[in-house]
Design a protein that fits this description.
With about 325 residues, the chain is of the alpha/beta class. The protein has 2 domains: about 5-180, Thiolase/Chalcone synthase (Peroxisomal Thiolase, Chain A, domain 1), CATH 3.40.47; about 180-330, 3-Layer(aba) Sandwich (Peroxisomal Thiolase, Chain A, domain 1), CATH 3.40.47.10. It contains 10 helices and 13 strands. The strands form 4 sheets. A 5-stranded mixed β-sheet has the order 1-7-6-4-5, with helices on both faces. A 4-stranded mixed β-sheet has the order 8-13-12-11, sandwiched between helices. Helix 3 packs across helix 4 (about 95-100) and helix 7 runs parallel beside helix 8 (about 260-270). The longest helix has 23 residues, at about 220-245. It is globular and about 60 Å long. The structure holds oxa(dethia)-CoA (UT7).
């Protein structure tokens, strides 16, 4: 293991579609209220992609910003991973559209389907590929057009989600640069039923008979998911904090998956990190699945919520069930 290279994040970027949908806008569509959504989730508004705006369009926009910040030339990108559950097409991979948009001709390109955990799954894969010397530069992206897979008549779910993309460029760390210190990922396939898009795959194709049953939209047993989310995120975050040899008071910022403010508060409490050191932007964007932690990382970075040398922890949770965490010294 000692001959593995340290891996750094050289640049981050994000993209949010222009259209804002507020809780009051949603109350015009389903039987809900700003009061219910705010008090149960912390979400105030979300962004909705234009009809002709694809997941790969958003991914490309976020990637361009990350590339620009990183100083890595697009032709030097060896690998593009897009984490998404809302791909442009079932095949080819959304990453291939992004590759073409960017002109990243050198790169291998593929998608990861690990729901809200996908961006950190991609980070771990890219870290290992770079650390081993197999590749030099990777572009990882979390991008979602969840509005295209939302049942807009179901108040249990349609108030939760939004669209957007976040990206990061990764390469070997130079002396003096920060690095990804530890990662932890896991999944529990016994829980596939509590959060899923049941239709539209080979298990349950969409047919003329079921076309109106909203099977190709996100379904969730909210309370069950909530319980798992708190436990799994706490454990994953603790695992990387321990492996990094850090204490709670060392951590400058925790950047968690943005699904529910009550979940985020519970995680902060269980990690003994005060709320002001936990990054939250879900009031603006809702839950953007794989994009959420990537967008949050970029916003926190650009806002100066952490600086060079700071210790930060990213932690996520999603359908699968899946979860992941990363301890990064910036
Ligand atoms: O990104 C992947 C991970 N996802 C998550 O982490 C989500 C985890 N789960 C949650 O965030 C929460 O469970 C929800 C926000 C989804 C729901 O909050 P909850 O406090 O668990 O509410 P509930 O589902 O138990 O519903 C409570 C009540 C129900 O009414 P009754 O049965 O008590 O009369 C619902 O019908 O709230 C009702 N309700 C609503 N009312 C107004 C459900 N959705 C709405 C709504 N507006 N949008």
């Amino acid at each position: 293991m000692s001959d593995l290279l340290s891996v750094t994040i050289a640049g981050t970027g994000s993209y949010l579609p222009e259209r804002v949908m507020t809780n009051d806008d949603l109350a015009q569509i389903v039987d809900t209220s700003d009061e219910w959504i705010t008090s149960r989730t912390g979400i105030k508004e979300r962004r909705i992609a234009a009809e002709d705006e694809t997941t790969s369009d958003m991914a490309t926009a976020a990637a361009r910003k990350a590339l620009e910040q990183s100083g890595v030339a697009v032709e030097d990108i060896d690998m593009i991973i897009v984490a998404t559950i809302t791909p442009d097409t079932l095949t080819p991979a959304t990453a291939c559209y992004v590759q073409d948009n960017l002109g990243a001709r050198q790169a291998m390109a593929f998608d990861i389907s690990a729901a809200c955990s996908g961006f950190l799954y991609a980070m771990k894969m890219a870290k290992r590929m770079i650390a081993s010397g197999a590749i030099q530069n990777a572009l990882i992206i979390g991008a979602e057009k969840l509005s295209a897979f939302t049942n807009w008549t179901d108040r249990n779910t349609c108030v939760l989600f939004g669209d957007g993309a976040g990206a990061a460029v990764m390469r070997a760390a130079q002396p003096g640069e920060g690095s990804i210190i530890a990662t932890d990922i896991g999944s529990d396939g016994a829980q596939t039923d509590i959060l899923n898009i049941p239709g539209g795959g080979s298990r349950c194709p969409i047919t003329l008979e079921n076309a109106n049953d909203h099977l190709a939209t996100l379904g969730m047993q909210g309370r069950e998911v909530f319980k798992h989310a708190v436990t799994r995120m706490k454990n994953a975050a603790n695992a990387v904090i321990e492996r990094a040899g850090w204490a709670a008071e060392d951590i400058a910022l925790v950047i968690p998956h943005q699904a529910n403010l009550r979940i985020i508060d519970a995680i902060a409490d269980r990690l003994s990190v005060p709320n002001e050191r936990v990054f939250v932007n879900l009031h603006k964007y809702g839950n953007t699945s794989a994009a959420a932690v990537a967008i949050a990382l970029d916003e926190a970075h650009r806002e100066g919520a952490f600086k060079k040398g700071d210790k930060i922890v990213l932690v996520v949770f999603g359908a699968g069930l899946t979860w992941a965490a990363a301890a990064i010294q910036w």
